[in-house]
DNA sequence: CGCGCGATTGAGTAATTTCAAATCTAGTGG
DNA sequence: CCACTAGATTTGAAATTACTCAATCGCGCG
């Protein structure tokens, strides 16, 4: 499990064994079961998660009971409510497991400590945040400039594996269309 | 002009006069006129801009000739095509000035040098990237969960100044609706 | 005054939603 | 192996929402 985290980090910076030990000490490996909730909407957020195995989703529940998925995270992805996590506010999202999942958790305190202890990690997190920003900007362009159908095909191309692993209802929620519309779209 | 940049940075980290001199040496202050293009779509991207005064927009032009605005940036904001800037790819966006604008430009090379020279700046840029990520995630939630009308009112609340400064056609493009629809929405 | 740009309005069309009902599928217990 | 159930997917029809295209209005500026 550890080596996945190390590989992920070493895609961006290189670490000695000693350094990686320090890094690892700031994380905690946790195992969750399918359907288990990891972050509750309207609660404070303790952790940022790096997923080593499994799949989670982050979704906002509106007062009218509708659920809107803003992110899926599978192996090698990070997930939390970044706003609540970094600013200490209450979470806008519920994050739960769509499969049994193993994830490395990181508290904000440990994240900041780690950046102090190993400045290269600050660089790592900067690159990660930048990459995340880039990804979201693409998604926004997709929303303003594409019809639902194109957004769907886009998703198929970018994350072909996802469709196999999650029910279409959730894909619809992620794309911002009703499940009926998605169903019609998917069959041309 | 310099003091605005310094204030912006010192919201997150603190700098000695000497350190700020080093920072400043990595930037170049530039003045642009209204309508001037700062980054061309399909061109490589040299700079990230911190806007000291004025207003720019970043927009993608589709083959069918339709323009989709992904970002406005006014005083105290940063703007570039982050993907092209950081990855050295060609820009997906044209960035131009909606008003006469003064901006501090930063090359990727200087950004990385600056992070090496003053590690606190790496921290600054990480925080900035994180804040940017948070902002985009909010916007995405807005897209999946709100109707066009709510998105418009949202925008009014978040950036009340913007409406006064840019034509409604551009607001419509930013919200992902036609200008006619926005017009109808705006008058209830 | 008259031009040009932005904003508005109207009418018809297309896309999407909603609600209800019908199917389909995987897993369970008998 | 079959019947049953819960969840997921699909389909239909009406209602809503947004789009397009065209025409008009309003205003600032030369």
Tags for this entry?
4-stranded antiparallel sheet; 188 residues; Jelly Rolls; alpha+beta; DNA-binding; 23% strand; homodimer
Spatial shape of chain A: globular
Oligomer status: homodimer
* CATH classification, class level of the largest domain in chain A: Mainly Beta
Q: How many helices of chain A does DSSP assign?
A: 9
Topology record:
Two copies of one chain form a homodimer.
Chain A: H1 2-10, H2 17-25, E1 27-32, E2 37-39, E3 47-53, E4 55-61, E5 67-74, E6 78-79, H3 82-87, E7 94-97, E8 101-107, H4 108-117, H5 119-145, H6 148-158, H7 160-165, H8 168-175, H9 179-186
Antiparallel strand pairs in A: 1-8, 2-7, 3-6, 3-8, 4-5, 4-7
Helix pairs in contact in A: 4-5, 8-9
The structure holds a DNA duplex (30 and 30 nucleotides).
What does this structure look like?
- The structure is a homodimer of 188-residue chains.
- Helix content of chain A is 50%, strand content 23%.
- Chain A has 188 residues and is of the alpha+beta class.
- Chain A folds into two domains: 143 residues, Jelly Rolls, CATH 2.60.120.10; 43 residues.
- Chain A has a four-stranded antiparallel sheet with strand order 1-8-3-6. The first copy, chain A, has a four-stranded antiparallel sheet with strand order 2-7-4-5.
- In chain A, a hairpin with a 5-residue loop joins strand 4 and strand 5.
- The radius of gyration of chain A is 17 Å and the shape is globular.
- The model of chain A has no long low-confidence stretch (mean pLDDT 94).
- At the A-B interface, strand 5, helix 3, helix 5 and helix 8 of A face strand 5, helix 3, helix 5 and helix 8 of B.
- Chain B binds a DNA duplex (30 and 30 nucleotides) through helix 9.
